[in-house]
TrEMBL record:
PANTHER family according to UniProt: 3-ISOPROPYLMALATE DEHYDROGENASE (PTHR42979:SF1)
UniProt subunit comment: Homodimer.
Name assigned to this protein: 3-isopropylmalate dehydrogenase
Keywords: Amino-acid biosynthesis, Branched-chain amino acid biosynthesis, Leucine biosynthesis, Magnesium, Manganese, Metal-binding, NAD, Oxidoreductase
Protein family according to the UniProt entry: Belongs to the isocitrate and isopropylmalate dehydrogenases family. LeuB type 1 subfamily.
Upper taxonomic lineage: Bacteria, Pseudomonadati, Bacteroidota, Flavobacteriia, Flavobacteriales
Function: Catalyzes the oxidation of 3-carboxy-2-hydroxy-4-methylpentanoate (3-isopropylmalate) to 3-carboxy-4-methyl-2-oxopentanoate. The product decarboxylates to 4-methyl-2 oxopentanoate.
Protein's organism: Polaribacter filamentus
Limits of the Isopropylmalate dehydrogenase-like domain: 4-348
């Protein structure tokens, strides 16, 4: 298969972790005889510095022409701390999601046997957890009107949803549940929000088309509690944009490190793959950040194109790195045995190449 992949390394540790995902993809290309062509593009603080724009037109063009996008992370502290900034890095990401029609963000959360001891949660609570979060990505409070009053004394962000926006992500969540444990939990705040009531109504209607899937509802405050109290009760979590953002970070404690969580954003055409973590500015350029979230995002990219065997090769290599303890300091602790970002990436790539040797 020949794929053109737009690569947006972004800011902070984005470039370091994305480079490791590319190594894994290159190893897969070699072993399974594919051609992956990379086209690098800028977005975020680095793009503001270079062009004044967090999402230059050139980047949009490269992404639209590509089959898929591999993205690192964006953001920079100086913008977080400057409420008067006219442009900021995250705007690039929202705009790109919009330009590409990415309406569904898929975030798998699973407990890895080797990392159970890394989680602050008890073994019996998390062992066997396997959840996937379907987060609506094109609407809600992220995208509607925002305003700061002229006197600077008040502000608002409007949260709105249409039935169409709710429906399209809901169908994807139910289709996923059909291939899993056949349960969808809609997380909302229907006791307060009108948008949540519309979600409940729409999702309840759609659920009738998926008779073998059980639907239940949970208020987001309770969901935040249940995710750490009894995560095994969940299969597919379906939720709106902001709730999905928050609970997916929370759910990462099950995994032992947020550095391991990957995601895909799918929509009308091109899909985008990225780790869920941020830019981890303290680690920038130090070769210490965990590249596994980015590497797993590359595996999700392969799955998206039906390359399951190839994705499994990456996952086996990742499991092996965990088994052998070739892991970064977020997993190992800051000790002399923790491996660098590039060492973990190099190990994964080598393992993919050598698995082929052992198959022959
Ligand atoms: C995410 C991130 C983004 C979001 C930020 C960087 C704007 O937290 O993808 O989860 O809130 O969507
Ligand atoms: Mn987030």
């Amino acid at each position: 298969m020949k794929l053109t992949i737009a690569v947006i390394p972004g800011d902070g540790i984005g470039p370091e972790v994305t480079a490791q995902a590319k190594k894994a993809l290159d190893a897969v290309a070699e072993v399974y005889d594919h051609i992956f062509l990379y086209k690098e593009a800028q977005m975020g603080a680095c793009a503001i510095e270079a062009t004044g724009n967090p999402l230059p037109d050139k980047t949009i063009e490269i992404c639209k022409k590509a089959d898929a996008i591999l993205f690192g992370a964006i953001g920079e502290l100086k913008y977080d701390n400057d409420p008067s900034a006219k442009v900021w890095p995250e705007q690039g990401l929202f705009q790109l999601r919009k330009e590409l029609g990415l309406f569904c963000n898929i975030r798998p959360v699973k407990a890895y046997e080797k990392l159970i001891k890394n989680s602050p949660l008890k073994r019996e609570v998390i062992e066997g957890t396997d959840i996937v979060i379907y987060r609506e990505l094109s609407g809600g409070i992220y995208f509607d009107t925002k305003e700061l009053s002229e006197d600077g004394l008040s502000a608002f962000d409007v949260c709105s949803y249409t039935v169409d926006q709710i429906s399209r992500v809901t169908h994807l969540a139910f289709k996923a549940a059909q291939k899993r444990k056949k349960k969808v939990t809609l997380v909302d705040k229907a006791n307060v929000l009108e948008t949540s009531r519309l979600w409940r109504k729409t999702v309840t209607e759609i659920a009738k088309e998926y008779a073998n899937v059980k639907l239940d509802f949970m208020f987001v405050d309770n969901a935040a509690l249940q995710i750490v109290l009894n995560p095994k009760q969940f299969d597919v979590i379906l939720t709106e944009n902001l709730f999905g953002d928050i609970i997916s970070d929370e759910a990462s404690v099950i995994c032992g490190s947020i550095g391991l969580l990957a995601s895909s954003s799918v929509g009308e055409k091109t899909a985008m793959f990225e780790p869920i973590h941020g830019t981890y500015p303290q680690a920038k350029g130090k070769d210490i950040a965990n590249p596994l979230g980015s590497i797993l995002s590359a595996a999700m990219l392969l799955e998206h194109f039906g390359l399951q065997e190839e994705a499994d090769a990456i996952k086996r290599a990742l499991e092996k790195s965990l088994t052998l303890g070739i892991t970064t300091e977020d997993i190992k602790g800051k000790n002399q045995y923790s491996a660098s970002t590039s060492k973990v990436g190099g190990f994964i790539a080598d393992y993919i190449l050598n698995q082929e040797d052992s198959n022959m």
